TrEMBL record:
GO terms for molecular function: inward rectifier potassium channel activity. PANTHER family: INWARD RECTIFIER POTASSIUM CHANNEL, INWARD RECTIFIER POTASSIUM CHANNEL 2-LIKE. This is Inward rectifier K(+) channel Kir3.1. Residues 1-44 form the Potassium channel inwardly rectifying transmembrane domain.
Length: 163
């Protein structure tokens, strides 16, 4: 294209249009291929299958305080670096003004104030939420816990040491 004696000139508008279409199409194909490579590289390969959470949580005494506890473990040999864990309580509630909130989210403190939310997942760990005055479980009895409909979502973030 434009080397030697052959070159696109304004005498042949079809050649100019073909060159523009070819350039645009080539750019789209390049962008698509780069996007495919980026998606393949950035997605962890079945990493979620190697993180295990306990199916049930328990409430019991630990160091004289009532605690909600569950376990988390990493089955891979390549460990997660700078892992941080968070937990949210999701349940419906009605405000004092009468507004119904279908999926109200409340943070559960699983060590944010003490730094215990930063994990080193070499062995399975027990994550503990202390039930105190700030906890959403503070005013719930054992029968309330059985009757109440709620869900606890646990979020574990971190980097694989290879990256």
């Amino acid at each position: 294209i434009g080397y030697g004696t052959r070159a696109i000139t304004d005498v042949c508008p079809e050649a100019i249009i073909l060159l523009i279409v070819q350039s645009i199409f080539g750019s789209i194909v390049d962008a698509f291929m780069v996007g495919c490579m980026f998606v393949k590289i950035s997605q962890p390969n079945k990493r979620a299958e190697t993180l295990m959470f306990s199916e049930k949580s328990v409430i019991s005494l630990r160091d004289g305080k009532m605690c909600l506890m569950f376990r988390v473990g990493d089955l891979r040999n390549s460990h997660i670096v700078e892992a941080q864990i968070r937990a949210k309580l999701i349940k419906s509630r009605q405000t004092q003004e009468g507004e119904f909130m279908a999926l109200d989210q409340t943070d559960l403190d699983v060590g944010y104030t003490t730094g215990a939310d930063r994990l080193f997942l070499v062995t399975p760990l027990i994550i503990c939420h202390v039930i105190d005055e700030k906890s959403p479980f503070w005013n719930m009895s054992q029968s309330d816990l059985k009757e109440e409909e709620f869900e606890i979502v646990v979020i574990l973030e971190g980097m694989v040491e290879a990256t």
